[in-house]
Amino acid sequence: MASPVSLYSSNSLDKHISSVSKDSLKMEPLTDVSLLPGEDGVIEKEVIYICPFNGPVKGKVLITNYRLYFRSSDSDMTVMLDVPLGAISRVEKMGGASSRGENSYGLDITCKDMRNLRFALKQEGHSRRDIFDFLFRLAFPLAHSLPLFAYVTQEKYEENGWNVYKAMDELRRQGLPNNKWRITFINKNYELCDTYPTVLAVPYKSKEEDLRRVAAFRSRSRIPVLSWIHRENQAVIVRCSQPLVGMSGKRNKDDERYLEMIREANETPKLTIYDARPSVNAVANKATGGGYEGDEYQNAELVFLDIQNIHVMRESLKKLKDIVYPNVEESHWLSSLESTHWLEHIKLVLSGAIQVADKVSTGNSVLVHCSDGWDRTAQLTSLAMLMLDSHYRTLRGFEVLIEKEWISFGHKFASRIGHGDKNHADQDRSPIFVQFIDCVWQMTKQFPTAFEFNERLLLTILDHLYSCRFGTFLYNCESARDQHEVRTKTVSLWSLVNSKTDIYLNPFYTPEPNMVLCPVASMRHLELWVSYYIRWNPRIRQQQSPVEQRYRELLALRDEYLKKLEELQLSDSSPAPRVPNSTASNTPSSNSSTPPQHRTHLQTHF
Amino acid sequence: MLMEFSEHIKTANVEDVVLRQPLHPPSRGTLCITGHHLLFSDREDQSCSQVLLLLRNIDAVEKRSGSTGTITIKCKDLRVLQIDIPGMEQCLNIAHSIETLSNLESVPEMYPFFYKPSDQSLDRQWGLSTLEQFFQETKGLASQWRLSTVNKHYSVCPSYPTSVIVPKCINDETLKKVAKFRQGGRFPVLCYYHHKNGMVIMRSSQPLMGANKKRCAEDERLLEAVIGNSDKGYIIDTRSIQQSQQARMTGGGFESKSCYSSWRRLHRHMEKGKSLQESLIKLVEACGDESHNMDRWLSKLENSKWLSHVQTALSTAGLVAECVERDGHSVLVHGSEGTDSSLLISTLAQLIMDPSSRTLDGFLGLLDREWVQAGHPFRKRCAHSAYSHARLQQESPVFLLLLDCVWQLWRQFPLALGFSEALLLKLATEAYSSNYGTFLCNTEQERYALGIKQKTYCLFQALLGPMNREVYINPLYEHTDLAIWPSVHPQSLQLWRGFFLRWTPQNQHLEEAQKEIKNMIIEQTSSWNKLENSVSSQEKPRVLITGGLGQLGVGLAEILRKQYGTNNVILSDVKKPPPHVFRSGPFVYADVLDYKHLRELIINNQITWLVHYSALLSAVGEANVALARKINITGLHNVLDLALENSLRLFVPSTIGAFGPSSPRDPVPDLCVQRPRTIYGVSKVHGELMGEYLHHKHGLDFRCLRYPGVISANTQPGGGTTDYAVQIFHDALSTGHHECYLRPDTRLPMMHISDCHRATVEFMEAPECQLSLRTYNIAAMSFTPEEVAQEIRKHLPQLKITYSPDSVRQTIADSWPVRFDDSNARRDWGWAPAFGLEELVSDMLHTIRNKRTNEGLPINSL
């Protein structure tokens, strides 16, 4: 007689209770691999996937110029992997030709998206050599003078996502230019600042020479420019890099005057300067020529927001990965989570943004910077704008926000992510953008009806942050993108999204145009984003918002009924009416993803 | 009574008091204290807001003196209020009154005895279902189990209800002996029966084994009886092995392997009592920590261990459910007293396995049975909550832990539970202080002694009232028969913010957003419902009737055509239709033996319903068995195949003739032995079985009614055994003499044709989900030739009737049932006949008389 098959027994007392359950084996929906236009398979091989959840799984792996695809051959247990090569940060050989032990010879793959993959191969005949070589070449094309997949793909979409953001349109939406702020094209050839966009909004009173002189005093010439203006009170969010104060405590009258012009634009009594860094770091930066605004800036107050740098964030996420992959920490989960400090960093970023938003909504202009103004600054300004401006909480508005605050203002995606680059230990890599998306997710949890988009969009964005399938996140700044003709030679991620928006929309979205969101950045109200960070673990119940899905089904059914009703009313007058069969077989379904049995299923319960 | 309270109230009213409460700005007003309430009214505001707080809800009072006194009130629902009172003396008086009145011990003085809701009356049922009802409603239980009233005077076990469910073969004497061997007399009783495999969950207290390893043969026999034919059972002991061994030193113990060889013991250490209370206190302290330094929040949360208690409870319940559902074995759950963890585990295991406990009504019923009636000592456990400074006695938040676990289930399966988070929050508050009597005492015995059920109102009944129901249901609830296996990894469990951070503005905001979402869903659901109705009312079937020129086809077609349009109903037969039939609507030639032609008909006409009336009836069939076999069986197979192939809704009539002499005759149920003695009957049973087989195997929408003898004035019967009942009316009005081919006492079920048509149409229109069967008896009346003759004589006293029984038909009639039991049809799709014998006779005479008059035939009316 069989013993209970137990999910609930980890106690050594009950060794007779084994611990495998059929329910837990489902990984991803089973589909045959369908390659993208322009995607080509290069090698197919029998391997054993050392699955951390189910043990070794025999199957076939297919490597293409875009992905690594694995499918188990065992019919009663389906395991499937579909990993874009762009998500791979490291490929290593494991064991040698003479290694002993089962499955000790093969490949060890580290991914950027919170998982690792191990494959075992046959030891005879250098069986891993070819697959290793292909993987290494295709996962790190830049090291082999190969193009990124975004330049190879032939995908076509109804909508061109590159049209989502046009700097001038967005400024005009905000009511700019006006009598206090003007648009300057001083950077149209990236001469003033090579990491800024070409179109900039600056104080009306400032002259082009002023801008050049200020650029000389700001790290990497990233001068203070307007990011967002409050329609009613005209308070602004201005972003820049740190001033080049240095050890000697240099001053720059032009910079001081320029900040005064920003303050004057809406007669803010005191311009608040948010320095995202901890104050010690700001001080330490003086040693390398940087620093912060001192007392010489009259009518300004400086607030440090204590957000750590890219290295701290990288290590924090690494620690988080250690406690969730491959095995989740069981016995001291909460204190282990605490010791990663990941949620604490999230809290600091969010609470910084809240302060910015609060200042601006009460009519005070603010200036935000960190060291170079492309990591923490982007987090703070974009999150504050998300709180202040409901437009950014729509699907397209959110795309604009990312395009504007992150992409055009030179968040160094290429360095932070390392697209196509084999140097996995590069100290420039850091999950700053992931952290931003996490903060957005926290906000969507706290305000479930305030965002037009859903969690799926956030997951999709993060997946394609690494995938290299779209040009959106490639390169460090606009000048580099121009040089590599990203807009003409690659497809935008927003083409994919905007061609099929329905799956990314939050059905509970209720627009409230003038509402300022004020999230709580208390640890008590923050949650680990389990459905992102632990999504590879099939044993953790994934909350893919069944409520949202069910509601969406209801909406789809409503549409179907409306359509049917219309048909019926049309056909009613004719002598021999065509009556659709009650099963959906000859009724055109408005939503093919809703299986017909759902309807009968629903009928019984309402 | 009031005097006793007023003793404790030195200052009843204070003016100019400032109230600070969470989520509201401070407000100034008057504070009143009564025997049961603290009442604050805000005078400044025109709207005059009031705060009414049940004193019983107050867990702790702290006073701080200064120029004005400040009282901090900490409530059992975790709310913290602050009241500034001018004047030290008044402040001290108020604080003293609150302290005394909130701690009054005497149950009959508590508020539920004074509470009089306007919309309820005391004579309503108290509680949701008694164990007797539970026993009766649980199908399959009665074969192995019985309801025992051994405890009717609470003499065997003071904490059990008067009735319990025990193995059938164990008598009350044995139970009494077992009770002596179990702590507090809590002998093993059944609390859950798993329909799918007949396995059960039992619960009890620990056996009183003691240091010298006492045994109790009756106890062993009782548990052996639970095992029955199965090979073993599991005992889930909610203590660690060490604890259960130590329990022997104080007279307790466990079921040793040698004495209970069929049972395997599994130990799961579950915290209870004091350590659980302390865990709650730590958690609430961490949640209320207002200091800005929140760095250590997660560690504090972990250190409180609350979530690990949640995890243990859910995983132990999961283990129980696995034993029962996956492994197919019965389980006995107990710890020491059997009034805390055992109830927690059995309740959660039932929620995991049993869909009927996941609805709003089902869940409250479960709580009523497993907590209130089963003797969870609410009064002791919920005397104080997390803030009290009083020395801990027997407080323990076991019930709160249950609600938290249920919330985790609810979060992981938001569609599978039929109730809302609001219900759990409500219960968490009410368990500690309430207007209702439900949670007042420790046991049913105490409730009985205090007259709780006569003098107080029942919370569960109130929650199910029409106004409340809307608040407490889950509009997205979707029934599932599957077990809901919770994930118990710490990553899958969460702090129940809705309860523990309930009074923070953020949570308030989130709650509002959730409410908004709920409203959207409700709105959507109702608009969807309306749409569905209007679609289904407009979506008309296309009907083909075979054998349409028999007794029933034309009449049915007429009704269906009225409902669905003339062109949507096609009559067919192999005969030439009379002119009025031909003119009344589409008629086609169709031979049920010609498969190909029938198929063409169905496809070309987009048929969705098929009514298969083509058959040779009993008497005619016996005369030509070969033809009957062809038409009734081969023809039916053609029709079944076509219905399946084209997803048709198929109606095939069956008959009283489908029963034989070995079937129960008075009345005959839907399901019984069917051994008919006619080819007609045999072919009909064959049809019933084939249709149901194809329904179960391939989902064919097969529907079958067993018609009694059908009596109609306008159409001639088709050669059945009940034909006399039509002929007799014609004879009565023509010759005044009827010669009956049946004996005068031959009783048979009969029905007026209009009832028969209506039954057919209503049955065809019934949604599939309402049908628990595919073949139903329908009945209207049963009479003998003598009885119908008597009834006719009321109108035509001269009717003469002679009897010359015909051996073929009499034999057939004698093999048939005399009455139909149609209770399933009445219950499932609302069948109810309109014609009884009296109505039938007057209608028949009236119609036939008119007909004869119209046709110029003489009428014998004298």
From TrEMBL, chain A:
Region (Disordered): 571-606
Subcellular location: Cell membrane; Cell projection, Filopodium; Cell projection, Ruffle; Cytoplasm, Myofibril, Sarcomere
An example Gene Ontology biological process: negative regulation of autophagosome assembly
Topology of this chain in the membrane: Peripheral membrane protein
Stretches with biased composition (Low complexity): 580-596
SUPFAM superfamilies: (Phosphotyrosine protein) phosphatases II, PH domain-like
Enzyme class: hydrolase
Catalytic-site annotation from UniProt: C370
GO CC term (a single one): ruffle
EC id: 3.1.3.95
Principal cellular location given in the protein's record: membrane
InterPro entries, A to Z: GRAM (IPR004182), Myotubularin (IPR030564), Myotubularin-like_Pase_dom (IPR010569), PH-like_dom_sf (IPR011993), Prot-tyrosine_phosphatase-like (IPR029021), Tyr_Pase_AS (IPR016130), Tyr_Pase_cat (IPR003595), Tyr_Pase_dom (IPR000387)
Amino-acid positions noted as binding substrate in the UniProt annotation, renumbered to this chain: N309, I310, C370, S371, D372, G373, W374, D375, R376
Domain Tyrosine specific protein phosphatases positions: 340-386
Reactions accelerated catalytically: 1,2-dihexadecanoyl-sn-glycero-3-phospho-(1D-myo-inositol-3,5-bisphosphate) + H2O = 1,2-dihexadecanoyl-sn-glycero-3-phospho-(1D-myo-inositol-5-phosphate) + phosphate; 1,2-dioctanoyl-sn-glycero-3-phospho-(1D-myo-inositol-3,5-bisphosphate) + H2O = 1,2-dioctanoyl-sn-glycero-3-phospho-(1D-myo-inositol-5-phosphate) + phosphate; 1,2-dioctanoyl-sn-glycero-3-phospho-(1-D-myo-inositol-3-phosphate) + H2O = 1,2-dioctanoyl-sn-glycero-3-phospho-(1D-myo-inositol) + phosphate; a 1,2-diacyl-sn-glycero-3-phospho-(1D-myo-inositol-3-phosphate) + H2O = a 1,2-diacyl-sn-glycero-3-phospho-(1D-myo-inositol) + phosphate
Record key words, sorted: Cell membrane, Cell projection, Cytoplasm, Endosome, Hydrolase, Lipid metabolism, Membrane, Protein phosphatase
Domain Myotubularin phosphatase: 161-533
A single MF term (Gene Ontology): phosphatidylinositol-3,5-bisphosphate 3-phosphatase activity
Similarity annotation: Belongs to the protein-tyrosine phosphatase family. Non-receptor class myotubularin subfamily.
Protein name from the UniProt record: Myotubularin
Native source organism of the sequence: Mugilogobius chulae (yellowstripe goby)
From TrEMBL, chain B:
Pathway(s) annotated for this protein in UniProt: Amino-acid degradation; L-threonine degradation via oxydo-reductase pathway; glycine from L-threonine: step 1/2
Catalytic activity: L-threonine + NAD(+) = (2S)-2-amino-3-oxobutanoate + NADH + H(+)
Domain of life: Eukaryota
GO biological process: negative regulation of autophagy; phosphatidylinositol dephosphorylation
Main EC class the enzyme belongs to: oxidoreductase
One GO location term (cellular component): cytoplasm
E.C. numbers: 1.1.1.103
Family annotation (InterPro entries): Epimerase_deHydtase, Myotubularin, Myotubularin-like_Pase_dom, NAD(P)-bd_dom_sf, PH-GRAM_MTMR6-9, PH-like_dom_sf, Prot-tyrosine_phosphatase-like
Ranges for domain Myotubularin phosphatase: 125-500
UniProt GO molecular function: L-threonine 3-dehydrogenase activity; protein phosphatase binding
Protein role: Catalyzes the NAD(+)-dependent oxidation of L-threonine to 2-amino-3-ketobutyrate, mediating L-threonine catabolism.
Family: Belongs to the NAD(P)-dependent epimerase/dehydratase family.
Protein name: L-threonine 3-dehydrogenase, mitochondrial
Organism: Mugilogobius chulae
Record lineage: Eukaryota, Metazoa, Chordata, Craniata, Vertebrata
